[in-house]
Amino acid sequence: MSADPRLHALCAGLTLEEKVRLLTGRDFWSTHGLERIGLRPIVFSDGPSGIRGQSWDERDPSVSLPCGTALAASWDREIARAYGAVLAGEAQRKGVDVVLGPTINMHRTPGGGRSFEAFSEDPVLTGDLAAAYVEGIQRHGVGATPKHYLCNDFETDRYTVDVRVDERSLREVYLAAFEKAVTQAGAWLVMSSYNSVNGATASENDLLETPLNDEWGFDGVVVGDWTGVRSLRSARFSQDLVMPGPDGPWGEALVKAVEAGEIDESAVDRKVLRLLGLAARLGRLDGFAPAVPRSAPRLDPTGFARSAAAAGSVLLENRGLLPVDPGRVRRILVTGQTAQRPLVQGGGSATVVPAHVITPLEGVRAAFPGAHVEYRPGPLVENGLDFLPPNRTANPATGGDGVHVRFTDAAGTVIHTEDRHSTNLVWFGGEAPIEDTVTVDFTTAYRPETSGQIRFGVSSVGAVRIEADGVVVFDEEIEPVGTDLGAALLAAPVRAFEIEAVAGEPVELRLTHAPRRGAEGLRNALGFRFGLLPPDLDDDRLIADAVAAAGEVDLVVVVVGSNKELEAEGEDRRTLTLPGRQDDLVTALAAANPATVAIVNCGAPMLLPWAVEVGAVLQAWFGGQEMGHAIGDMLTGRAEPGGRLPSTWPAAEGDVPILAIEPVDGRVDYHEGVHVGYRNWLRLGRTPAYPFGHGLGYTTWSLDRILAPAALSPAPDETVTVRVGVTNTGGRAGRQVVQVYAERADSAVDRPAIWLAGFAAVLLEAGASTVVDVVVPIRAFAHWDSGWQYEPGEFALTAGFSSADRRLTTTVRVA
Ligand code: BGC
Description:
Blueprint: H1 5-12, H2 16-22, E1 44-45, H3 68-73, H4 77-93, E2 98-99, H5 123-138, E3 143-144, E4 162-164, H6 167-183, E5 189-192, E6 196-197, E7 200-201, E8 221-224, H7 251-259, H8 265-282, H9 301-312, E9 314-318, E10 331-335, H10 337-340, H11 360-367, E11 372-376, E12 386-387, E13 393-394, E14 403-408, E15 414-420, E16 424-428, E17 439-446, E18 452-459, E19 462-468, E20 471-478, H12 485-490, E21 494-501, E22 507-515, E23 525-532, H13 539-550, E24 555-561, H14 582-592, E25 596-601, E26 616-619, H15 627-636, E27 667-669, H16 678-683, E28 701-707, E29 711-712, E30 719-728, E31 734-743, E32 755-764, E33 769-777, E34 782-784, E35 788-790, E36 793-802, E37 805-814
Parallel strand pairs: 1-2, 2-3, 4-6, 4-27, 5-8, 10-11, 10-24, 24-25, 25-26, 29-37
Antiparallel strand pairs: 6-7, 9-26, 12-23, 13-17, 14-15, 14-17, 16-23, 17-22, 18-21, 18-23, 19-20, 19-22, 28-30, 30-33, 31-32, 31-36, 34-35, 36-37
Helix pairs in contact: 1-8, 2-7, 2-8, 4-5, 4-9, 5-6, 9-15, 11-15, 13-14
Beta-D-glucopyranose binds near residues 100 and 349.
């Protein structure tokens, strides 16, 4: 790397101790500064669908955008760029320099627990949108961090699992997803993953050098995933920064290793130069102008969250039901627990605390002001805790709502207090003196809404003791699930207990928690959550209630979805079935009223066995805080559901080429090679419920002609333009995504049946035609075999509206 000579001079002026100190975080979210050289700390934050900031605190809320799959479903680079810009604005507002996103691992299986955060099963769609997202952030002077490099495509045993994958698949699929974010968008950071790839853990893997540095020209910082860098040995690799700090495997051990001549000081210098270079880019180093002046994006985050949720929602089915003219419906039934308790984001480090969430029920009420909207909850969707509603709690210290929290040290002295409005309490760094805290307790007076048995739940790891009106009602040591302490903190086990209460009469609650401290470095994090659990209800009666109401209305809106356990960091899914009796609910509603629209609230594929029985199915993903309004907009046609599936949706679990992840001897073999996602479905001759690229929208389209150069000669960085004639044949303006796939009939190489070569979104008025230019990189015609190779001969290019709906063909001869 040829860094600015002034950076070399700065580095040369540092002692070895000073250099090494810079290479491990100062705390959970920031790096060390060094006043002497005018270096200020760099502040990181998750990411990737909202900016949490340095604390997870309802008093400092964040805008929650639609999840990664929803963004990818837009197939729209402009939306991805705007998404990045909104995040940059949020980062600036929260004093954050670097966003830990985008998450761009592949949807190798629909069961990936963290797929909601990532984009797609296709490397071209992922790579193009990732580049646009990174550009969107960095053009405002905030750093972006594509993650997790590499093959963290599932969560099972994520710290230790060894992914075995051949060189060609790495290049054509898994690395390709990251490539443009580096080569085109010039990402300032990359995050290395926890897992191993081909026998070497990511932070000790040659992939950090080749292709990232020496081929792609990456000159930024490789930050390890949190607690992911676990050895001194990793300092020998192109791993630059250890997070979180202040402890870590480098520190003193690295100083000694350099002094003993075991590790060359130049390896340390290289990391320091990169870190200084990053600080300079971010404007965190005196005397250096930032790479891009920090500018505030001119976008309204709330308005963007709403329009992006609609742009990414996928209309899977529509039997003439949608859109609905609000003037023509008088009575609407909204049903499903999810209508009132939606999941607007997936679980884990991606979670932010929004200032508000518009529920689907609220969205429908707002969109149909003239209609009578009734709500029936339907069967239970076990969804963890409902945090205590602030308006039913009283803080004994302030007299206002919420809870009073105290942190006590080993001597029994109260060292910190907080007055909070939420019972969702997680501390990751921030101001609370977590490291010195031995117990944390909170007190509140809770006024129940109903009389009788109330089910409470507490979620944490360590000792928990709860008193209600001075009587101990719960006293347990809660063990973590698995060894993944980060995930244990974010998705700790929930324990239930019940008390008898009278509606409106306050119950004095005191919860005391002695956290379990991880040897693995989570000593500056703490999580403690408390709330209500749904009472044991009679699902048959709840379904019957909803169905009886459905017969009386002009429109039924049923909202179904997954839950916090199914889609969260730290675990994969073994089933794609909607939890609880939701399928029974929709089936019964469809029989009761054909004007039933099912809205699906999940981040990755689910089975929808009733999809052909209802009037319409709208996949709304984890739609962010404005999801309810976006649903209202789409139901009435104010907005068109603009999304196309970024991954294949199966009709049955048995059809899915790869579902469960079961490491064998600590390994997972990517045996399907380059045949990932729809490529594998086609290869195996299986038909999914909805193919990759599918999505209906509110108008109809035709493709009229396709034109491509007849011949081309390989020139790696060049592109060809495929021109596709498109007509909006329907009665309203709409948006379509023209998808161009490549295939090769007589190949000596084992190729995918088809592969996405390029795509372009188009907006057209009713009846209008245009020619869409789809830019296809020449690389789309290459395969990897110790280098990019071009097999001479004829490639077919097909244009269409999904991987299964390809309507026009042309050929290109590669010389
Ligand atoms: C996740 C990362 C995240 C980091 C910090 C890790 O557990 O894998 O994606 O950025 O935590 O929260």
